[in-house]
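Input for the complex:
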Amino acid sequence: MKIVALCGAGIGTSEILRVNAVRVLERLDIDAEVTASDVAGIGSAAADAQVILTSPGLVGAIGRTNADIVVIDNYFDLEEIQQKLETAVG
Amino acid sequence: MVDPLRPLHELPDAAIALHAVADDWRDAIRASAQALAAAGFAEPEYGERMIALVEEFGPYIVIAPGLALAHARPGPDVHGAGLSIVTLAQPVAFGHSHNDPVSVVLGLAATENDQHVASIASLANVFNDESVIPAIAAAVTADEVRALLRRASSQPAAGA
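Predicted:
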């Protein structure tokens, strides 16, 4: 499985989301590759991704995609990330 | 990694500004850029690029209740990887649907060489403890902030 964490600049926020998504996936025993991307690169980054993780305000910037878009409010809330990822991939 | 971020609990005094007065979110971001500049990590003008990122993409930098991670892409106005911490005397709204108002602004400067600094992971270690944001917002000395960061980063992350 491929998962992309998306933010505006591709540094900082998407990296925090990526790190915490990896933690949650380990907890769920799900084997996935998680990368971080900025908005400009999301088309190619998410071309073969199953899930895009992002914040509420960035959903409109994603454009057409076959991936499930998972919106995370609190990037530090592992429970929220786990619950929403489980719903998306389960 | 040519220029790694220093450990969070070694933030210099200049990079920490407590109970800053900000009229709005732009002011709050400028304060975080001023702290980055005071510590030598970036030019004060870096703040205008951090503001532009929010104007372009919205308040997604408000990544947890009460916490914004102000940043922009690497550029000539960044001198080295660094963080600043600004707490606000009065919280300000960024327009986030879930995490407003913001009382703590982290400023992040990154250079081309360290776009995905490993130390970002240490931010997650600290702030995955939800009690840390209000504790930092209430801190009155830089030593108190560093002590909170040290205590939190020395604990294993939740679920890890």
